[in-house]
Amino acid sequence: MKKILVLLGPPGAGKGTVGSILSKEWELPLISSGDILRENLKKETEIGIKAKKYVESGELVPDEIVMEMIEKELSNFIYNAGFIMDGFPRTIEQAKMFDKLTDSNDIKVIYLKADDDFLVKRLSLRRVCENCGKIYHLVNIPPVKEGICDVCGGKLIQRVDDREDVVRRRLKVYKEQTAPLIKYYKEKNILFMVNGEENLKNTLSEIKKITEW
Ligand code: AP5
Ligand code: MG
Question: Is the CB of 133 under 6 A from ligand 1?
Answer without folding.
Answer: no
